[in-house]
Amino acid sequence: MSIFRYPRPSASEITPRSAWLSRRGLLATGLAGAIVPPGLMRPAPARAAALAARPDAQFGGGLTPTPFQDVTHYNNFYEFGLEKTDPAERSGGFHPHPWTVRVDGLVANPRTYDIDALLARPLQERLYRMRCVEAWSMVIPWIGFPLAELLKEVEPLGSAKYVAFESVVRPSEMPGQDGVLPVLDWPYVEGLRLDEALHPLTILAVGLYGQTLPNQNGAPIRLVVPWKYGFKGVKSVVRIRLTDTRPPTSWNLRAPDEYGFYANVNPEVDHPRWSQATERPIGARGGFFGAARKPTLPFNGYGEQVASLYAGMNLRRDF
């Protein structure tokens, strides 16, 4: 019996289950993306390719994802603009291939990984809840592999305590980086404690919905940490560095009173400008005013797996 048990979303969160089960059957045989149930997917971005991945029932069993159209057209990716539609509309000129990811710092075996080699690894499909700090949420079928695999290959030194992440800087391809008054300093940077990075829930995603990542979702590789707010999921990663000191993170640098380093989903700690007690499911069916808000779960519903990482900590102070 699996030790991983996940809360199920309400019926209003889901796409038709028959369509999703049909697609998962194709995915398990390595044919994902070749045939798609009508209405499930929209035309894919340029250079999108089918990915074969093993559906991992212990991660997200019982969940059904947010519609593909919403997952790929309601995004925060400020490198392409501030509106939710900007990433899909303005990322067509971004080139996610060729691509490499450098993993170095306090390691015995620093390495540079080519994206094609990463895509050739055994991949898993995991359905994870995603909770944005803006109090909306999705359920996304990510394709990727545990970050721990990469970290163990580079052999962290005993002095390594944190993992720092850095995204790409390409103002010629990312119009949000080319502004006179950027909302953030570039590159986008993020960080985790080493034990968080090594946790089996933490993955590097290279795809979603049976295909390589669309540009607007962080192509070609991004971080996914499902118990934390979405801004921790740094996109278009080019460097991973192990360090002995806590690394700076973009939103914490921008507004430290609003965005903490840990950023664990916590309905008891409000954002200074809005409540975190409830969330709005994106793409959910509802009445005239859309789907009703629902209660937010501590650690986004993954408390059984990760709460022990923070034993003895004051989660109001270390938010």
From TrEMBL:
GO BP term, pick one: protein repair
Alphabetical list of InterPro entries matching this protein: MsrP, OxRdtase_Mopterin-bd_dom, OxRdtase_Mopterin-bd_sf, TAT_signal
Official protein name in the record: Protein-methionine-sulfoxide reductase catalytic subunit MsrP
Binding sites annotated in the UniProt record for Mo-molybdopterin: 75, 78-79, 132, 167, 217, 222, 233-235
Cofactor note: Binds 1 Mo-molybdopterin (Mo-MPT) cofactor per subunit.
Protein's UniProt keywords contain Hydrolase: no
Cofactor(s) required for function per UniProt: Mo-molybdopterin
Lineage, top ranks: Bacteria, Pseudomonadati, Pseudomonadota, Alphaproteobacteria, Acetobacterales
Short name of any one Pfam family annotated for the protein: Oxidored_molyb
Organism: Gluconacetobacter tumulisoli
Described function: Part of the MsrPQ system that repairs oxidized periplasmic proteins containing methionine sulfoxide residues (Met-O), using respiratory chain electrons. Thus protects these proteins from oxidative-stress damage caused by reactive species of oxygen and chlorine generated by the host defense mechanisms. MsrPQ is essential for the maintenance of envelope integrity under bleach stress, rescuing a wide series of structurally unrelated periplasmic proteins from methionine oxidation.
SUBUNIT field: Heterodimer of a catalytic subunit (MsrP) and a heme-binding subunit (MsrQ).
Post-translation changes: Predicted to be exported by the Tat system. The position of the signal peptide cleavage has not been experimentally proven.
Transmembrane segments: none
Family membership: Belongs to the MsrP family.
Origin: domain of life: Bacteria
UniProt domain Oxidoreductase molybdopterin-binding: residue ranges: 96-251
